[in-house]
């Protein structure tokens, strides 16, 4: 996988589907850039990506080509990845999300990442989600994830809690805990989200190989700020701290996105 493939994926995401859209459909394109700076000579990780979302009635398709670079003292690696996710509402009670991500073998992304979630609405404003994920990291290291979460909706947003069981190959199986709070603005499409986590593979390392020691914590804040009726800025800032063989490493993550409604 190379830069030519990345450009082809970007072109396909931007042009498909370009035919006349059904009345209940919409399209959104979001460009993002993120940097993650590690302490203790841990280097950096930078990514630039494009997300294309196509919503048609009960089905949502999301394509997400991305290019990333990982730098440490004496090492520089670049990789290109591509993801696809399908969301579908099967009824007013059951919905699913199926996703796949692939990349070349490099210490930037997972080599491949498959995930499946099933969400069931158990009450008027309460939903429960069960999920599974299988990722293969550099060196053909397989890691599986099982998760269960509950989300409670309110007029102003929602609150969720997720428990993840992480089973790395030839290692222990630590748990990860993630809490999410999402708050919508009183008017308009603006919203603010907060994620707080404890446990390995909980936030920043979703696509990044690590030791899966279980001794990690982190927090991320994201803001969707409408600029016009069709354009929004999406700033993000976060911090994670993880135990590694060389000691505890902190990582500061800063990102900025630009979302454009195409319809």
Structure description:
- This protein is mainly β.
- It has a 14-stranded antiparallel β-barrel.
- It is globular, with a radius of gyration of 19 Å.
- The protein has one helix at residues 3-15, and strands at residues 25-38, 44-56, 59-72, 75-89, 94-103, 112-123, 126-137, 141-154, 157-168, 175-184, 191-198, 216-226, 231-244, 247-261.
- 23% of the residues are buried.
- 5% of the residues lie in helices and 66% in strands.
Write the layout of secondary structure elements.
Elements: H1 3-15, E1 25-38, E2 44-56, E3 59-72, E4 75-89, E5 94-103, E6 112-123, E7 126-137, E8 141-154, E9 157-168, E10 175-184, E11 191-198, E12 216-226, E13 231-244, E14 247-261
Antiparallel strand pairs: 1-2, 1-14, 2-3, 3-4, 4-5, 5-6, 6-7, 7-8, 8-9, 9-10, 10-11, 11-12, 12-13, 13-14
Give a summary of the structure in a few sentences.
With 263 residues, this protein is mainly beta.
Task: For this entry, give a set of tags.
263 residues; mainly beta; 1 helix
Q: Tell me the major beta sheet.
A: 14 strands, antiparallel, barrel
Q: How much helix is in the residues? A: under 10%
What is the CA–CA distance across the termini?
Answer: 32 Å
The strand order across the widest sheet is 1-2-3-4-5-6-7-8-9-10-11-12-13-14
Q: Sum up the overall morphology in one term.
A: globular
Q: How many DSSP helices? A: 1
Q: Which whole number gives the mean pLDDT?
A: 86
Number of strands: 14
Structure class: mainly beta
Order of helices and strands: HEEEEEEEEEEEEEE
| Radius of gyration using CA atoms only | 19 Å
Q: Runs with pLDDT <50, length 5+? A: 10-21
How much strand? over 45%
């Amino acid at each position: 996988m190379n830069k030519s493939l990345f450009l082809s994926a970007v072109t396909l995401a931007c042009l498909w589907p370009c035919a006349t859209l059904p009345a209940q459909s919409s399209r959104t394109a979001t460009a993002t850039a993120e940097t993650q700076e590690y302490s203790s000579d841990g280097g950096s990780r930078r990514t630039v990506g494009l997300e294309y979302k196509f919503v048609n009635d009960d089905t949502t398709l999301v394509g997400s080509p991305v290019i990333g670079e990982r730098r440490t003292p004496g090492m520089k690696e670049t990789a290109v990845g591509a993801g696809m996710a399908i969301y579908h509402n099967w009824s007013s009670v059951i919905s699913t999300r199926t996703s796949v991500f692939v990349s070349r073998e490099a210490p930037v992304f997972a080599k491949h990442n498959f995930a499946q979630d099933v969400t069931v609405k158990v009450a008027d404003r309460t939903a429960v989600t069960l999920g599974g994920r299988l990722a293969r990291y550099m060196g053909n290291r397989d890691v599986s994830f099982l998760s269960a979460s509950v989300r409670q909706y309110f007029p102003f947003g929602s609150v969720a809690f997720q428990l993840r069981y992480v089973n790395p190959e030839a290692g222990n199986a630590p748990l990860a805990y993630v809490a999410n709070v999402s708050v919508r603005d009183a008017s308009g499409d603006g919203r603010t989200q907060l994620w707080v986590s404890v446990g390995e593979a909980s936030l920043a390392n979703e696509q990044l190989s690590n030791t899966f020691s279980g001794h990690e914590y982190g927090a991320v804040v994201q803001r969707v700020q409408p600029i016009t009726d069709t354009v929004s800025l999406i700033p993000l800032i976060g911090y994670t701290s993880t135990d590694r063989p060389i000691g505890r490493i902190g990582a500061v993550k800063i990102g900025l996105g630009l979302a454009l409604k195409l319809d």
